[in-house]
């Protein structure tokens, strides 16, 4: 049966195979237990580290493979085939690491990137606050200079890998009067004085991923922990999200594929009215739509990730498109998979109910799909104004 050819190089196919092997051998056997126990997947993080996948996007001089957004998407898609909670922990490490890669000094890169590439220390990205979600420029955490130190005060909310990660890239206001231009980014480490964590959040899904508050209470960090220059924090966060969002699209593709595989398998063996239910056209049409939307999402995510890797500037619009289309697809496909499995789909003994619960976050984190539509709409407005 013909499959779409995405013309992967041998090396890219190796990344796919490696990540798929981890999904099948290490993640799928334990995903229900991790979900049920809300357990952080440390063992799997070690497997991913041993496979050298944490270093995919890190330059060779810091111990990585210097690959791009596309290779990262390939790994994310396959890991997500196993479980998107586990994959979110892996993805969050890149989200927290990109600011160091994009804006860090040579000295900061040398200090942090080798450990990040080796998977020795997890990274987290601290942007969101109770009153600054979609309105990311509304952050209230402050950073003020005090002699040789920066002193940070505020609370970050819903931070993926909060408490588990050791390195945090935090956005704080250094000049509240300047709005988005008054934000600055910093590296904060677990153990820094005045830095602690809130309780682990309980969630609808994504239970193997840990989500906590970061509490900065007079947190004192050395002067050289500033990332880039004062006032660059918001742009840094936006550029980080522009590189990371296709990865969320890739996670959605992996999840959608996993749900489709479960639905087809079930529809082929479930007998009703004397025949497998896949013989019914109503079911075939559902499966056909699911498969087509997954392939369309994969093609979109891959081509956008490749475009970003070519060094294209101003990628906010296309990056938003990759996340928007694929994550709406994943929500629909996982919901349809539950429908196809019927009563069994609603039971915890089958994996599709978890897939549907997990899928919902994809439309919310790293920019709600409503904000992404705004980003795309505003970009269109600007483009057409130039024509
Ligand atoms: N790349 C580079 N610069 C960008 C940018 C991008 N993608 N997006 C915005 N900017 C720049 C703008 O050009 C503007 O610069 P000037 O000050 O020179 O004009 C500045 O940043 C402020 O931009 P804007 O006025 O568009 O900011 P808004 O406050 O209106 O917010 C949105 C823009 C809504 C797009 C932003 O807040 C956002 O992405 N929100 C979602 C946040 C998110 O994803 N949260 C999830 C957290 S991580 S799980």
Word description of this protein:
The structure is a single chain. The protein starts with 9 loop residues before the first helix and ends with a helix. It has helices at residues 10-27, 31-37, 42-50, 69-82, 84-103, 106-117, 233-269, 281-309, 316-346, 352-362, 369-386; strands spanning 123-126, 142-146, 149-160, 167-173, 183-189, 195-197, 211-222, 226-227, 271-272, 275-276. The protein has a four-stranded mixed sheet with strand order 1-4-5-8. Strands 2-3-7-6 form a four-stranded antiparallel sheet, covered by helices on one side. Strands 9-10 form a two-stranded antiparallel ribbon. The model has no long low-confidence stretch (mean pLDDT 97). It has three domains: 10-117, Butyryl-Coa Dehydrogenase, subunit A, domain 1 (Orthogonal Bundle); 123-231, Butyryl-CoA Dehydrogenase, subunit A, domain 2, CATH 2.40.110; 234-385, Butyryl-CoA Dehydrogenase, subunit A, domain 3 (Up-down Bundle), CATH 1.20.140.10. The longest helix has 37 residues, at 233-269. It has 387 residues and is of the alpha+beta class. A hairpin with a 2-residue loop joins strand 9 (271-272) and strand 10. The protein binds coenzyme a persulfide. Coenzyme a persulfide binds at residues 127-128, 134-137, 180-181, 234-235, 238-239, 241-242, 316, 365-367, 371, 375.
Search tags:
10 strands; alpha+beta; 387 residues; Butyryl-CoA Dehydrogenase, subunit A, domain 2; Butyryl-Coa Dehydrogenase, subunit A, domain 1; Butyryl-CoA Dehydrogenase, subunit A, domain 3; 4-stranded antiparallel β-sheet; 3 domains; globular
């Amino acid at each position: 049966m013909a499959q779409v050819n995405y013309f992967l190089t041998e090396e890219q196919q190796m990344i796919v195979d490696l990540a798929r092997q981890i999904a099948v051998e290490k993640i799928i056997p334990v995903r229900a237990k991790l979900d049920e126990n809300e357990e952080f997947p440390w063992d799997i993080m070690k497997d991913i580290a041993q496979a050298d996948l944490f270093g995919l996007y890190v330059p060779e001089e810091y111990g990585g493979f210097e690959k791009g957004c596309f290779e990262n998407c390939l790994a994310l898609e396959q890991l997500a085939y196993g479980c998107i909670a586990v994959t979110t922990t892996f993805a969050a490490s890149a989200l927290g690491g990109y600011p160091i890669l994009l804006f860090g000094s040579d000295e900061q890169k040398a200090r942090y990137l080798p450990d990040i590439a080796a998977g020795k220390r997890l990274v987290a990205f601290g942007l969101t606050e109770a009153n600054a979600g979609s309105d990311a420029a509304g952050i209230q955490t402050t950073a003020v200079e005090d002699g040789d130190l920066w002193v940070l005060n505020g609370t970050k909310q819903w931070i993926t890998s909060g408490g588990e990660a050791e390195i945090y890239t935090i956005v704080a206001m250094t000049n509240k009067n300047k709005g988005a231009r008054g934000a600055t980014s910093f590296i904060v480490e677990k153990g820094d004085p005045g830095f602690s964590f809130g309780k682990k959040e309980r969630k609808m899904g994504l239970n193997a991923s840990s989500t906590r508050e970061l509490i900065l209470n007079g947190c004192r960090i050395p002067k050289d922990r500033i990332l880039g220059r004062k006032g660059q924090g918001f742009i840094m966060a936006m550029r980080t999200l522009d590189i990371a969002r296709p990865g969320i699209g890739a996670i959605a593709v992996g999840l959608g594929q996993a749900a489709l595989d479960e639905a087809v398998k079930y529809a082929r063996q479930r007998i009703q009215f004397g025949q497998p239910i896949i013989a019914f056209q109503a079911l075939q049409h559902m499966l056909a739509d699911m498969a087509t939307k997954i392939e369309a999402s994969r093609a979109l995510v891959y081509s956008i990730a490749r475009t970003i890797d070519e060094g294209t500037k101003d990628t906010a619009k296309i990056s938003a498109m990759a996340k928007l289309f694929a994550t709406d697809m994943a929500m629909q496909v996982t919901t349809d998979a539950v429908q196809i499995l019927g009563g069994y789909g609603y039971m915890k003994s089958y994996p599709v109910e978890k897939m549907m619960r997990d899928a919902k976050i994809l439309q919310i984190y790293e920019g709600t799909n409503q904000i992404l539509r705004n980003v795309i709409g505003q970009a269109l407005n600007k483009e057409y104004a130039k024509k």
